[in-house]
Structure formats: C-alpha cells, structure tokens
Amino acid sequence: MSSSSIPRSSAELDGAEAWERSLAEPHALWDGHPGAAEFGASVRGRLEAGAPVPHVVPKFSLRPDDVFFCIGSCFARVIEYQLLYRSVPVTSLAIRGEPAETPNAVNGIVSKYTTASMLNEMRWSLDGVPFPDEALVADGEGYRDLQLQQQPAPVTLQRARERRRVVEAYFARLREASVVILTLGLVEVWYDRQTDLYLNVAPTYDMVHRHPGRFVVQVSDYAENRARLEQIIDILSRRGRPDLRIIVTVSPVPLHRTFAAADVLVVNTYGKSTLRAVAGDVVRNHPHVEYFPAYELVTVSDRAVAYMEDQLHVSLTMQGIVGTTFLEAFGLSIPAPHPEYDESGYLWANPDVKTAVVRGEFGSGYEHWLRHGREEGRPLRP
Length: 382
What we know:
Elements: H1 15-24, H2 43-49, E1 68-71, H3 74-84, H4 115-126, E2 136-139, E3 142-145, H5 157-171, E4 179-184, E5 188-192, E6 197-198, H6 205-210, E7 215-219, H7 222-239, E8 245-250, H8 264-283, E9 289-291, H9 294-300, H10 303-306, H11 316-329, H12 343-349, H13 351-358, H14 365-376
Parallel strand pairs: 1-4, 4-8, 8-9
Antiparallel strand pairs: 2-3, 5-6, 5-7
C-alpha cells in the first residue's frame, strides 16, 4: 500500500495525471510480466518470491525509544511478541497479578475482539466512566465478566471485582504509550439488554438459558464500527501522550464460530471487509493515525506458509515476516536476534515461567529464556 497508489482523500484525480502516476509506480500492477523490470514489484512477482510484502509509505515514522501498547485479539499478541523479540518496549505484554487460564498468553484474558469492547475498556480505564457492577453476570455459583476473554469457569463476585480492578489498571497504561496498535477483529457482537453494553465474548450456552431474553447477538455494520473507532481515537488522543501515534490493523485470524448465519465463511468475509473499509476511511482524517496492511500480507500469501495447521492462527514464519515488514515500513530496521524463539510456545512448555511473569519476577518469558532458559536447556515448545 503506497500513498502514490491509494489516494489519501476522495478528491478526483485528473485522468492524465492518474495514468502518469500509475505508470511511475512499480507496485501498481497485480500481474506483471515475468522477466520485465517491474515484475518483482507486482503482486504476482512478490507472491512468487515468497510473500506479497506490501509497499507502505506511512505518514509518520517510529523511534527506537517509542513505547508500545497493543490492543486486539490473538493477532495483537503476535505483534507484541515481534516487538518483544527486538527489545522494543511494550507495556501491554503482561497483566500483573492475574493468573490467566490460557496456557500460552500471560495477557490473554484482556484480548479484545470488537470495536465495542475496546471502547468500553477505554471509557472505564481512561475516561472516568465507572464499570457497572451488574456487568458481572451470575453463572451458576459464580460470576463471569463478559468484557474479558472467555474463561473456563466462573469466579466469586469478590474475585470478579478484584480482576476488574486489575484489568482497568492494565488498560490505564495506555497513557504511557507513544504508539498504540489497534487490531480490529470481528463485527459479530453480543449485546446485554440489562446493562445496555456490548460484550467482548459470547455468553455460554447455559447462561443464555439462565437469563432468557437478556442476551442477543448482532452483526455490526460499517457506520457503527466507524463511529466506535472514531471515539476510541478521540479518547486516546485526549488521554494519551502529546506525541501519540496510532496504528490500525485488521486481524487476519478468522471468526471461529458464527451465531448469526449458517456459514462462518460468509460472516467472516463480511466482517473483515467491513473493518478494512472502516480502517482505511478513518485514518485519512487523522494525521497521527495510520493503517498497516497486515491483513493483506497474511491473507494473500500461500495459506500453507501463512497459517498453522488449524488454518486459523498465523504461522510462526509469517509472524516473523509481519514483524519485520511492520517495523521497516515505519523506519525501524531491527532484526530479531533469536528467530527460533516463540513466546507462546515457551510459556506453554514452561508454566513455572508463566507464573513468574505474572508475579512480575520477569518482564516476559523471553527475558527468562535469555537470562536462564537457554543455559538450563528449557524447551521452546510444549
């Protein structure tokens, strides 16, 4: 994606100028002719080279001393890890004191899947809006916070309240970040009629039967998601650092299960298309907001290279390509010195290390591996 190939505004471009512009841009062709000088820059040429790394001309650059905070679903964790492997400061990596039940992510509990759930957390953590206690929903003998990633079991009301305080302190770190990365995930969203809140995850099968009529599922549209993204940018801009820059991406990880239609493939395509259009249109209006085409890079690549065997999550190889491409696009060329390392796999294989990270004894599994794990011969995979 180049500023010379995709205009920043909807203004008309003179026909003669449009032709000159296209002819001068080597990345303007999808199918170049093999052997021609421009073939390598065409999408076909880039695909044959291994991955169609997008040509990006951003509005701003990144600095070596920037502090990052990533928000989104599992793909946000991918970007966090790629920054971690290059020793770039990331304040969203761990949530202290919260023993996350997911085996491979210390901060998995705070993954956010929709613009609505992202906006909720920013209102509660940054804009002074109190979290409604009734949003902790009774489920059998315990309670669930449906603004967080789904947990395997409900907890006591006291524990749910304690966890909520920890989560709000976690998102309050957004004030410290000079770069916030927003990874947009899904448009299918659950709504709680009792609290008038959109949720982050679906209520369980048992919950919807225990609370008949309370929960409904909706497919949010372009206008709703655009309005929410604008509100997110407004809160971050008002409450964040003066030098704040925001980078928006769309997650290439598909919707796992749909509740709104018969075929998840159809709903997923609609959702990703909607969010991609929202991201492209919103960033035009803000000089400190830019789009990075991770979605395009991953989804156009050979699926055997881009995805794991589940055809859902991004492969380790592609994660490294995304990390390198992202930083280089914004002016930082920082190689990962240990490409064999995988934070997710290391934490899964070494649960004691994960516990130590949660306690704050280490900033990450990677720090532990560099200081102790390599010498101890710790496994890098489960």
